[in-house]
Amino acid sequence: MTASLRHLRDLHKEESPLLLKSGYGLTSKALNPSSFERQDVKLVLQVFNLHVAEALAARKGHTDFQHATATTEFIKIILRWWSIVNVKTPSKGFHHRNVYEEPVSNQTDDPNASFLSAFITWLDVWHDIGVFTQETLSALRLSAQSLLASVKYCVSELHFKYVLLGKVQTDPLESRFGQYRQMAGGQYHICVRQLCETEGRIRL
């Protein structure tokens, strides 16, 4: 059994006419994004959402959802990873009451560091059964390995008490390229000439 988007579409179809929804936040746009919208984090988080995972888990005895356990687990694993790598303040986990939103610490039994290590193994298992493309696996694996190596270096060599992985990301760079695309007429693929021209206008 593997995770399937069909379970999410069935959940959305079942709940769309209802006023109260257990799969809170799941929308048709998130389930059927365009190639450009697939990079929209807000839409991604509508799919990888704890409410959605719990809604699927609550329906595991139903005929249409009897094999949805793998989908539920897949969502939860990605959510844990997302929580760990997006911690930007030391107290986030305390305020949200979520151990996966705590900074990765210098403790030998830190659960978040252990999860990142297990996450790499999990990616390889899923790749072996043909779930991930080579490109997706390489990107996720490199990210997880790099973050884990950074944590180990900061803890062992720099003697940090904890590491905020949410500070190690490419948001500023992505924001800049977003400006380039908008100033080039909303084009997704821009050439070097357009990049240089828009950078010149930004700096004026």
Automatic annotation (TrEMBL):
Pfam families linked to this entry: TNP-like_GBD (PF21788)
Transposable element P transposase-like GTP-binding insertion domain sequence ranges: 7-91
InterPro entries: TNP-like_GBD
Annotated protein name in UniProt: Transposable element P transposase-like GTP-binding insertion domain-containing protein
Organism in which the protein naturally occurs: Rhipicephalus microplus
